[in-house]
Design a protein that fits this description.
Blueprint: H1 11-19, H2 25-29, H3 33-40, H4 42-51, E1 67-78, H5 81-102, E2 104-115, E3 120-131, H6 134-148, E4 155-167, H7 168-175
Antiparallel strand pairs: 1-4, 2-3, 2-4
Helix pairs in contact: 3-4, 5-6
Length: 177
């Protein structure tokens, strides 16, 4: 396997290793820790360990989500704002369910509209208080649809995104302080 798959081996380290005739992990294992330290400093110790599958750092596979979104492309373009409402209702429900599972509330709500000519507009509003109330989110999206729908144009895709999250229990604690 190529040395470039080792975490911490970027283009410059790979080039240095290749100049030493080291192109594979097997080649790298052939060098002692002392040799690697003399050529790469403290980084050499890490190379030695990682080439042998010894990891001193924990990998965090859970990352904080920045947004939750959902969109729908229509098989037939939608010609009226009212025609988008059933889809917006379903998308909003799905997003609110995801926020409930994660115990988060959103302060920002965004609308995405793509028209038949593929022109895309996005609009966002910030709530005065973070929420995951489906009625609040649907109402805000409906307002944005009505104020941004272009008469005579058809909508090909609609999307909703929520972001700027707060943990649910943080807001609850603030209310009771």
């Amino acid at each position: 396997m190529n040395v470039s798959i080792i975490p911490g081996v970027g283009p410059k380290t790979k080039e240095k290793l290749n100049n030493l005739g080291i192109t594979s992990i097997e080649d790298l294992r052939g060098l002692s820790e002392k040799e690697l330290r003399s050529r790469f400093g403290i980084h050499g110790e890490g190379l030695y360990k990682r080439a042998r599958g010894i990891a001193s750092s924990n990998l965090n596979s859970k990352r904080e989500r920045k947004s939750i979104s959902n969109e729908r492309t229509f098989s037939l373009n939608i010609r009226t704002p009212e025609g988008l409402i059933p889809t917006i209702n379903r998308i909003s429900m799905r997003i609110c369910e995801q926020m409930k599972e994660k115990e988060i509330l959103a302060k920002s709500v965004s609308l995405k509209l793509r028209f038949e000519n593929f022109e895309t507009i996005t609009r966002a509003k910030t709530l005065s208080k973070a929420s995951r109330n489906v009625g609040v989110i649907k109402s805000l999206i409906e307002q944005m649809i009505h104020s941004n729908f272009i008469p005579g144009r058809s909508v090909r895709l609609v999307g909703v995104k929520v972001s700027n999250f707060e943990l649910e229990n943080v807001q609850t604690e603030l209310i009771f302080m």
